[in-house]
Amino acid sequence: MIIIVARSRAGFGVLLGSDLVEEFDEVDVARACAARLCEEARARGESFSWVDVSQASAPLAMGRKP
Predict the structure, then answer these.
(1) What's the start-to-end Cα distance of the chain, in Å?
(2) Residue 3 in contact with residue 14, Cβ under 8 Å?
(3) Is 10 within the bounds of a domain?
(4) How confident is the model at residue 66 (pLDDT cuts 50, 70, 90)?
(5) Cα 46 to Cα 31: distance, rounded to the nearest angstrom
(6) Residue 22 domain boundaries
(7) How many domains does the chain have?
(8) Is-contact 54 29, C-beta < 8 A?
(9) CA atoms of 48 and 63, how far apart (whole Å)
């Protein structure tokens, strides 16, 4: 499982793989959400990676269809 914090059109998004979990106005709140997902994965004994690309200059296209 990979957990990603990225810039989005609405602010900052948290993705679980390619699925958008939630969007936030503040990057610190998005990072806290990602940390919670990491703790939940750890509690289930799942392996995971956490990537923070929130400082990228352009928003990523995240799980939203037009």
Answers:
(1) 26
(2) yes
(3) yes
(4) very low
(5) 19
(6) 2-53
(7) 1
(8) no
(9) 20
